[in-house]
């Protein structure tokens, strides 16, 4: 950590030039004592990446940024705030602290937070920024989180872990046992120090696979931001038994669109099927990832168009966690039917359909955009359908 970067000159330059052409800055002669142009560009790039993702850091003076990769890998403020809602009590240990965004928000809920980060420079950066941001109840340790647990005499109300999905031998990995640290292998040690664990995993992890690798799963949270799944969170409680709850949330402009169901109920229930009615519904990305397809239909008393299409319909409009449409036309899919529709511009979605969006656009010469929405799917008899729709008013 180069403290010359925190001097007034470099700080002013970073605040005023994060949108400038980075190559032009890189090619200039050094402007500030003790600060190379490469270091300056690294700060500019990281600050720019923080503008929307980390507004608290972006709008605060004297923040020291790590390299842009650390910013890309860290939680966003929106998802970090959500995680802080899950935990409670007085103490929490973050075993994989990183840049410290999650720790910052945990510290607003907890009396004391431990931040473990194996990279000494990143640990120093996080500690500096916590002080700048006024978070005096976070203690930073430049150590491996698992080594910290082995040596500490402390116990915690919660332990939080965000394992690295990069393995030196296997490259990018998705199984929890291949991540670092290996959580399934270390669960016994972790539960010697806490009753509650919050685990963050890749959004690409299969939920059932994650549950099969872990013991003591109490809840799974599927977190989407602007309808893009960003995180899977597993809540573990020592010696817990019983059904696993799945909480989905789609965060848009600070609003949390939530849906909750019990995994066992989803597996044991049947789905109501039906022909297209007056309204069409498409679940948000968090629900689609969760697999709660029967539960969402039952909760809102909807009929599914096909067991594998994940599109729903009803005769009256309901307030649904996803997109809602008025069905204007329902046609058997064919080249002649598409020609008769005469649509040259539309938003296209395919669900359980043999052609891709790109194929359909090319085949029927339909440009993207406009106020018309076309859904290509199957009906209960596996016949191909096209539904012409308009969005309902929000």
Walkthrough of the structure:
The protein is of the alpha/beta class. Helices cover 32% and strands 28% of the residues. The protein has 16 helices and 18 strands. The chain has helices spanning 8-17, 22-27, 37-53, 55-58, 68-73, 77-86, 101-106, 120-132, 145-151, 183-190, 207-213, 263-268, 285-290, 293-299, 335-341, 357-364, and strands at residues 91-94, 112-116, 138-141, 158-161, 166-167, 171-172, 196-201, 217-225, 228-237, 245-252, 255-262, 279-283, 303-304, 312-314, 322-332, 345-350, 367-378, 384-391. The strands form 3 sheets. The chain has a 9-stranded mixed sheet with strand order 3-2-1-4-7-9-8-10-11, sandwiched between helices. A 7-stranded mixed sheet has the order 13-14-12-15-18-17-16. It has a two-stranded antiparallel sheet with strand order 5-6. Helix 1 packs across helix 3. It is globular, with a radius of gyration of 25 Å. The model has no long low-confidence stretch (mean pLDDT 94).
Care to give the gist of this entry?
The protein has 394 residues and is an alpha/beta fold.
């Amino acid at each position: 950590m180069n403290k010359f970067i925190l001097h007034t000159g470099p700080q002013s330059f970073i605040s005023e030039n994060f949108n400038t052409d980075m190559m032009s800055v890189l090619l200039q002669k050094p402007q500030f004592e003790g600060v190379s142009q490469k270091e300056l560009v690294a700060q500019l790039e990281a600050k720019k990446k923080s503008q929307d993702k980390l507004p608290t850091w972006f709008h605060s003076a004297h923040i020291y940024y790590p390299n842009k990769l650390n910013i890309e890998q860290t939680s966003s403020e929106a998802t970090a705030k959500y995680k802080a809602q899950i935990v409670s009590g007085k103490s929490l240990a973050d075993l994989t602290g990183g840049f410290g965004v999650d720790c910052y928000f945990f510290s607003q809920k907890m009396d004391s937070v431990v931040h473990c980060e194996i990279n000494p420079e990143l640990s120093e950066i996080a500690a500096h920024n916590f002080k700048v941001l006024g978070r005096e109840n976070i203690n930073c340790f430049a150590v491996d989180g698992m080594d910290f647990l082995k040596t500490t005499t402390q116990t915690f109300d919660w332990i939080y872990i965000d394992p690295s999905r990069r393995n030196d031998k296997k490259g990018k990995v998705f199984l929890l046992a291949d991540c670092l640290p290996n959580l399934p292998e270390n669960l016994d040690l972790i539960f010697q120090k806490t009753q509650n664990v919050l685990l963050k995993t890749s959004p690409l992890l299969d939920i059932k696979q994650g549950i099969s690798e872990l013991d003591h799963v109490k809840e799974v949270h599927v977190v989407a931001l602007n309808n893009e799944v960003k995180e899977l969170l597993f809540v573990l409680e020592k010696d817990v038994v019983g059904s696993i709850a799945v909480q989905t949330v789609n965060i848009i402009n600070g609003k949390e669109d939530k849906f909750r169901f019990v995994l066992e109920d989803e597996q044991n229930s049947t789905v109501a099927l039906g022909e297209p009615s007056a309204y069409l519904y498409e679940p948000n990305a968090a629900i689609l990832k969760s697999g709660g397809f029967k539960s969402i239909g039952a909760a809102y008393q909807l009929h599914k168009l096909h067991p594998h299409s994940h599109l729903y319909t009803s005769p009256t409009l309901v307030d649904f966690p996803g997109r809602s449409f008025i069905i204007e036309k329902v046609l058997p899919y064919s080249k002649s039917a598409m020609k008769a529709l005469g649509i040259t511009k539309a938003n296209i979605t395919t669900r359980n359909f043999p052609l891709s969006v790109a194929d359909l656009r090319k085949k029927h010469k339909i440009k993207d955009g406009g106020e018309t929405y076309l859904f290509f799917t199957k009906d209960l008899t596996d016949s191909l359908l096209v539904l012409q729709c308009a969005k309902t008013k929000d």
